Amino acid sequence: MTSLFDPLQLGDIALSNRIVMAPLTRNRAPQQLPNDLMRTYYQQRGNPATGAGLIITEASQISAMGQGYLDTPGIHSPEQVAGWRRITDAVHAEGGKIVIQLWHVGRISHTSLLGGAAPVSSTAKAANGMTFTADGFVPTSTPRALRSDEIPALVADYRRAARNAIDAGFDGVEVHAANGYLIEQFIRDSINDRSDAYGGSRENRLRLLTEVMTAVAQEIGGGRTGVRLSPVTPVNDAGQDSDAQTTYEAAVRALAPLQLAFIHVIEGQTGGARDLSDQGVKPFDYAALRRLYAGPWMVNNAYTRAMALDAVASGAADLVAFGRPFIGNPDLGARLRQDAPWTKLNSKLLYGGGAAGYTDYPTLAQQAAQTVQPTAQG
């Protein structure tokens, strides 16, 4: 019986175990540059014996126009590539594997982050949501719809970012096509109101996804390319697709020929409930989606240890990604192996700041040392 702790060949990437650190935005990259504090954070979680078999980095914008939040890192300049190289070297020194999540937020942005320009999207409709700027959390700005003739350059940005990632020492990339960001703004008919080749029919709405994934796979190889999908999450004002089951099954079928390293699926609401029936969301058949893809399948969202063990043992998934548990537990892998308690994260220190709530969470060994009582003096 396959175990969560068994090795796995993930496309061209050999993993020591099937525990994945999910991408987590932490807003600790001033000037969009990866830095030494980030290096410590990822290195702490990079040893597969105690941390993750695979780290997926925080979402990183593919271009200056892809940014949606203050102090998030990019992967589009030489300085960013150099900064990430120090991080990948540190994780590899621990024996770990690391891929970067490629990100374009689309309409989930603000003009102050884009040099005064309007965000771009599949639509000119504003999202009913907030983003994080130098002035704190503010409503997102009204976007403009991308012109058809602008989309080839957008696809080229993804291709270039993937090449930059390999130059920065990453083992691969994950394209962010989830959570109401740009690619999903094209996929869902609740957002996409276009009438050109990228809107209307399901095939057209999936066109950007398939063009981006094809370009990235051509550039760095399908075996180093993954994708993240979120069929029903309502975050970032992503209304439900009129037929999510059919749409996302079509997406997986379209991606299958690329022989990707993995498909990463968020089950339910990102960072929230797995069952959204109380919000009127139809049950989604994730097992049917999984049956359409012969390659490695990664699942995510509120997995407990028992759920993760069962998912891998049953074949429902090949890997399990843990997000917030990895924030408070740099040695989550060891805690999963030992069935040890998980440290609760400090939610007030999630976004922005310094080492507090970022690199100062203790490991099991450090916690044990802290609880040793002084020897009584006779």
Annotation keywords:
378 residues, alpha/beta, eight-stranded parallel beta barrel, 12 helices, 30% helix
Characterization of this structure:
By secondary structure, the chain is of the alpha/beta class. It has a single domain (8-371), classed as TIM Barrel. 30% of the residues lie in helices and 15% in strands. An eight-stranded parallel β-barrel has the order 3-4-5-10-11-12-13-14, surrounded by four helices. Helix 3 (151-167) packs parallel to helix 6 (207-220). The longest helix is centred in the middle third of the chain and has 17 residues, at 151-167. The protein is globular and about 65 Å long.
Total beta strand runs: 14
Strand content: 15-25%
List the secondary-structure elements in sequence, H or E.
EEEHEHEEEEEHEHHHEHEHEHEHHH
Distance between the termini: 54 Å
CATH class: Alpha Beta
Helix content: 25-40%
Question: Would you give the CATH topology?
Answer: TIM Barrel
State the major sheet. Answer: 8 strands, parallel, barrel
- Structural class assignment: alpha/beta
CATH homologous superfamily heading: Aldolase class I
pLDDT < 50 stretches:
none
Q: What is the spatial order of strands in the main beta sheet?
A: 3-4-5-10-11-12-13-14
Helix tally equals 12
CATH architectural grouping: Alpha-Beta Barrel
| Spatial shape | globular
Rg: 20 Å
